[in-house]
Amino acid sequence: DRRGYVLEANIPISVAEDTSDEEKVTFLKWKEENEIVRCCMIAAMSYDLQCQHEQMTDSRAILLHLQELYGEKSRTARYHLSKDVFSTKMQEGASVNDHCVKMISCIEQLASLGFIQDA
Questions:
Q1: Can you tell me the distance from the alpha carbon of 6 to that of 67, in angstroms, rounded to the nearest whole number?
Q2: What pTM value is reported for the model?
Q3: Are the C-beta atoms of 28 and 62 separated by less than 8 Å?
Q4: Which residues contact residue 114 at a Cβ distance below 8 angstroms, ignoring those fewer than 6 apart?
């Protein structure tokens, strides 16, 4: 709980040599706490997710990536895209090429969001 601040702020890249000792201590403390939070996050993941995130050094970046994968927005996007794929019909006299390009685009977007369709 007291380490949650590392998930809310961007990681400082480094500390300049002319910074005060207090700022250097703050930076080092932030790095330590970030590593603790990162390790806890990775330990709580499935093996597949661990493999995806083990090279990430910023706990906030891991959180943002997980939100992209599993957040409400991606679920809603998958729903709307799958609805488009299954309900889209080619209009009379429309170009077959344009229709196919639209369908392929929707299917590729679904794949990028992790949508898996059973055969």
A1: 16
A2: 0.55
A3: no
A4: 69, 74, 78
